[in-house]
Amino acid sequence: MSIRDMGRREDGFTLVELVVVLVLIATLLGIAVASYKSARVRTSDTAAESNIDVAVPAFQAYYVDNNGTYVGMTLAKLQASYSKGVQNITIVAARASDYCIRSTVNGRNWYKLGPSGAITTTKCT
Predict the structure, then answer these.
(1) Tens-digit pLDDT profile for residues 32-51
(2) Hey, which residues does 119 pair with through a beta bridge?
């Protein structure tokens, strides 16, 4: 070791090392945020589908009690007479032999054209 190097200390981080650590942290943060958003969308979709699933038995009971028609079915009637658990749905249409309902959670819409249709993101009328 020369006299010139004796006063120099080499502990600490170089600029390159700090940049590498910052890039790694940013990458991990990006992955975490994307994962959180994806989980939130899945949770919203599950909640909307569940809202529809809970309402279907009330629709069927209404149909039986009203001589085989869905005409006149409203959310208030379903909650008052069949199930207070019917929440967060909109009855888009209630016709003699079928109905269309929508559940919206966090801006995402799910629909069911009933009684036998699947729960989908495709609009029904």
Answers:
(1) 988 888 888 888 889 989 99
(2) 112
Q: What pLDDT is stored for residue 21 in this prediction?
A: 93
* Structure-block tokens of residue 7: 């006063």
Q: Do residues 31 and 89 make contact, with C-beta atoms less than 8 angstroms apart? A: no
102 lies in some domain = yes
| Distance of alpha carbon 70 from alpha carbon 95, whole angstroms | 5
- Count of the separate structural domains present in the chain: 1
Q: What is the span of the domain harbouring residue 107?
A: 46-120
Residue 103 lies in a domain: yes
The neighbour count for residue 77, using CB atoms within 10 Å, is: 16
Query: Is residue 16, in this structure, part of any structural domain at all?
Result: no
pTM of the model: 0.69
Q: In which residue are the tokens 């899945």 written?
A: 42
